[in-house]
Specification:
The protein has about 400 residues and is mostly beta strands. It contains 4 helices and 29 strands. The protein folds into 3 domains: about 90 residues, Sandwich (Immunoglobulin-like), CATH 2.60.40.3780; about 100 residues, Sandwich (Immunoglobulin-like); about 140 residues, L,D-transpeptidase catalytic domain-like (Beta Barrel). A hairpin with a 4-residue loop joins strand 5 and strand 6. The longest helix has 10 residues.
Length: about 400
């Protein structure tokens, strides 16, 4: 059972017997005078170049374990559990790469034993990008979105280490798909839009987790915290050429707009989107979005809706069409004055829905935050743990 594992014994047992020597009349037999054997443990990981990415197991040769502690050089501790039979302890998380570990064990007879090992550096390290900075306030449609540097074949193993905690037990689910960049991505979406005031914490306990073929190991944990702000929702009607702004269920303003020209590449995307970022004044070049030399200009009050370049922004050159005709190259344009006040009002994460005739359909799910165009059941099916099987 212990073949191939290091057997370590600590001579920390107390000597048996009383103060009397042989023939002292204590009446204790020779069997009672025999000391208990030293405590011996076997650790599955040994040496100074151990391969990371698997749990640590500590096995007791005889007796029952009472306590096991596995710590790294920085004082961090691997949590774990002792099996029902008391013979084996297994860590709940994997050993991480490039780390010194010390194992300390104690049995039910208060004997102790220790061991140590070091994991080698990972051949390849995977990293993540998280869309919500710590301390942010976002709109009610903002998903948690994680994009991975390298492919993730072990989606279920990775998803197990991702946890969203909310102040009001918000129901939600993770879903896997390809980001617009082509990289693997997993988002957490509530069943319905967030409730204003919700506090959210995201723990990504990925250190030591193996991404699978081509992905490498993760070498650190990640975390972020954010708050849900005002419930503000926008709806753009391609039919009326107006954008309605609703706050806490009440319409607070209506803005004349001109959206994408129907019938071709210049049409707007439709469906439910999310205001991704407020980018201020930016250069917009039609050649970067496959529209030839249609435009190349500086644009004010730019608010991104998709990765492919759909924005809401100021478009004074199109003033004659606001509220009258959809004649833009795909974006939602408005006057300088309306754009300035609207830009100051909105927050990243606000839902932005485009309805009516003349669109080019919904953008791909990874082209921004397109998950709100899926039903709840469709979204849950994208989970590697609770939905349909996910291919690597």
């Amino acid at each position: 059972m212990l073949a191939g594992a290091a057997l370590l014994a600590a001579a920390l047992t107390a000597c048996a017997g009383g103060s009397g020597g042989a023939g002292s009349g204590t009446g204790k037999g020779e069997a009672e005078m025999k000391p208990k054997p030293d405590m011996a443990i076997a650790v599955n990981l040994t040496g100074d170049q151990v391969k990371a990415g698997e749990p640590v197991t500590v096995t007791l040769a005889e007796g029952k374990l009472a306590l096991v502690k596995v710590t790294d050089g920085k004082g961090g501790e691997l949590p774990g559990k002792i099996a029902d039979d008391g013979r084996t302890w297994t860590s709940e998380r994997n050993a991480s790469p490039g780390t010194d570990y010390r194992v300390e064990a104690q049995n039910t007879d208060s004997q102790s034993a220790a061991a140590q090992f070091r994991t080698g550096a990972a051949d390849k390290v995977n990293k993540v990008s998280i869309n919500i900075p710590k301390g942010s306030t976002t709109g009610v449609a903002m998903p948690v979105s994680i994009v991975f540097d390298n492919p993730v074949a072990n989606k279920a193993e990775v998803e197990k280490q991702l946890k969203v905690t909310t102040s009001n037990s918000t129901e939600g689910s993770w879903g896997w798909f390809k980001d617009y960049s082509g990289k693997d991505r997993v988002d957490w979406r509530p069943k319905e839009y967030w409730k204003s005031g919700t506090e959210v914490k995201v723990d990504m306990n990925l250190n030591g987790v193996d991404s699978g073929k081509g992905g490498g190991l993760f070498a650190k944990d990640y975390t972020t915290e954010f708050r849900i702000g005002k419930d503000r929702r926008m709806e753009v009607s391609l039919d009326t050429k107006r954008m309605t702004v609703v706050e806490d269920g009440q319409t607070v303003r209506t803005i004349p707009v001109s959206s994408g020209t129907p019938g071709g590449k210049k049409a707007s995307w439709s469906g439910k989107m999310v205001l991704m970022s407020k980018e201020g004044t930016i250069r917009m070049d039609s050649q970067t979005v496959g529209l030839g030399d249609a435009y190349d200009k500086m644009v004010d009050y730019a608010m991104r809706l998709t990765w492919s370049g759909m924005y809401a922004h100021a478009a004074p050159w199109n003033a004659a069409n606001f509220g009258r005709a959809n004649a833009s190259s795909g974006c939602v344009g408005m006057s300088d004055a309306d754009a300035a006040s609207f830009y100051a009002q909105v927050q990243v994460g606000d839902p932005f829905e485009v309805v009516g005739e003349g669109s080019k359909g919904n953008a791909d799910i990874g082209n921004g935050y397109g998950e709100w165009n899926l039903s709840w059941d469709q979204w849950k099916a994208k989970s590697a743990l609770h939905g349909a099987p996910q291919n690597g």
